[in-house]
Write a structure and sequence with these properties.
By secondary structure, this protein is mostly beta strands. The protein has a single domain, classed as Porin. 5% of the residues lie in helices and 56% in strands. The protein contains three helices and 21 strands. It has helices at 3-17, 35-38, 54-57, and strands spanning 69-85, 89-92, 100-102, 115-125, 130-137, 141-145, 158-173, 178-197, 213-235, 238-245, 249-259, 273-283, 286-295, 300-310, 316-321, 328-332, 338-348, 353-362, 380-390, 395-416, 420-442. The protein has a 14-stranded antiparallel β-barrel. Keywords: Cell outer membrane, Membrane, Signal, Transmembrane, Transmembrane beta strand.
């Protein structure tokens, strides 16, 4: 397949949708792929997503949509985080005396800007048993900017990770109570990561911030994964669903730019800039989800989910480039597999109004020794609410909101340079506010 064509197609889609990314789930996974689902904290999404966004959460659910429909939505993400330095240090190489000194600089402030995360889905019932669908979204992302005077600048200053996915899917109703679905996840990824390089010093002096060098890694890739789903309805009021999304293993191709620090120790190489082609591997997690939906009466439906994330395949990021020492480097991540749990409810007020609420607990995959300032992550607790309003028989409007609390965690990450070793130490915590709206049109 022509991956250059796919890159251009997916980038064009991103420009049309105005896609951007901000880390807002455990790790850098973005759960906000449905405004209606956000209202219940995505509880029961694998079992009971009653609109076209089921393309993402469980393709088997498409057979429950009797008419062609389009679902378009967007979430406004309002993340906030801070990093409090607790004693970051720089240790020079033995050739430079081996002394350890404090790293100077500012604490972070809030490195995140407000971001918009859109999604678009369509479902076409072919007959009573077969349905086809297409989804366009961004399920993984990251964007933060600490600035060049950040005390943790040798770990990161700017980070951008953008993914854009197109998901052609199909579903088949096997029996009245069993349906299956599957799809292909065609994913484009772009990464742009920056950090500073400490200038060599002598006599135990702290690195001279004004003399810092710069390192930037930039690249992109297109690759593929798959998703599978099954839904069962053993009774008129009970729905069960199970989905599995496979890992996508990217090999990004781009360039590595290095500007050396300004220092007499470097002689003629002081301040020199060099660029070379580079490659980096990025493995995204497998995701398995189980959901249940139980209708209690004509008004109430309760929902639940258990999610599992195979983050352990994101254990490191190997990077190769001729400008790097020894032709390459490996950045340890050592993410751990995680679980997430959600409970929610829907209340049918009348034919026009549907009220929703939910809570979710989402574990972080990061560990203290390798937790990066790029992803200052902690366990997350979600509190959500939403409403669906049926404007006409063809048009539904969704509004949802959420508050996500991110637990305080410790950062103690080590970065090694040709001039010495930096240990960035600090405490980080944060929160995210989310406001989201969507329109559902049934033809």
């Amino acid at each position: 397949m022509n991956t250059r064509f796919l890159r251009l197609s997916l980038l064009s889609t991103a420009c049309v949708l105005g896609m951007s990314a901000s880390a807002n789930a455990a790790g850098f996974y973005l759960q906000e792929q449905s405004v209606s689902g956000l209202g219940t904290a995505f509880a029961g999404a694998a079992a009971d997503t009653p609109d076209a966004s089921t393309v993402y959460y469980n393709p088997a659910g498409m057979v429950n949509l009797r008419r062609p429909e389009i679902y378009a939505g967007a979430s406004l993400l309002l993340p906030s985080a801070d990093f409090d330095n607790t004693g970051s240090t720089y240790t020079a190489t033995a050739a430079l005396g081996g002394a350890t000194s404090a790293v100077t600089g500012n604490d972070s402030g809030n490195p995140f800007d407000p971001e918009i995360l859109p999604q678009l889905y369509g479902v076409l019932p072919v007959n009573d048993r077969l349905s086809l669908g297409l989804g366009i979204n961004s399920a993984f992302g990251l964007a933060d900017d600490y600035g060049s005077d950040f005390v943790g600048r040798y770990n990161s200053t700017d980070s951008e990770l953008l993914t854009i996915s197109m998901q052609p899917t199909a579903a088949y109703k096997v029996t009245d109570w069993l349906s299956v679905g599957a799809g292909v996840n065609i994913q484009y990824v772009y990464a742009n990561l920056k950090n500073r390089i400490p200038a060599p010093t002598a006599g135990g002096a702290s690195p001279n911030q004004a003399a810092d060098g710069n390192l930037r890694l930039r690249g992109d890739d297109v690759d593929f994964g798959y998703n599978f789903g099954i839904q069962m309805q053993p009774t008129d009021t009970t729905k069960l669903g199970l989905t599995y999304k496979t890992s996508i293993n990217h090999e990004l191709e781009g360039d590595v730019d290095i500007t050396n620090p300004t220092s007499a120790f470097l002689g003629g190489l002081s301040g020199a800039s060099v660029t070379s082609e580079g490659k980096a591997k990025l493995s995204l997690p497998d995701i398995a989800s189980f959901g249940v939906s139980q209708q209690l009466d004509d008004k109430w439906t309760v929902l639940g989910s258990v999610n599992w994330y195979r983050w352990s395949n994101f254990d490191n990021i190997p990077t190769s480039a001729t400008v790097l020492p020894n032709g390459g480097s490996v950045t340890d991540q050592n993410y751990e597999n995680t679980w997430g749990f959600a409970l929610g409810a829907r209340y049918r007020m009348n034919d026009q109004w549907l009220l929703k609420g939910g809570v979710q607990y989402d574990q972080t995959p990061t560990i203290t020794a390798d937790r990066s300032t790029r992803v200052p992550d902690g366990d997350r607790m979600w509190f959500t609410a939403g409403v669906t309003y049926s404007l006409t028989p063809q048009i539904d409007l969704d509004l949802s909101g959420a508050y996500v609390n991110v637990s305080e965690e410790r950062v103690e990450v080590t970065d090694t340079f040709a001039t010495g070793t930096v240990v960035t130490r600090g405490d980080t915590d944060g929160s995210v506010g989310i406001l989201a709206g969507a329109i559902r049109y049934k033809f």
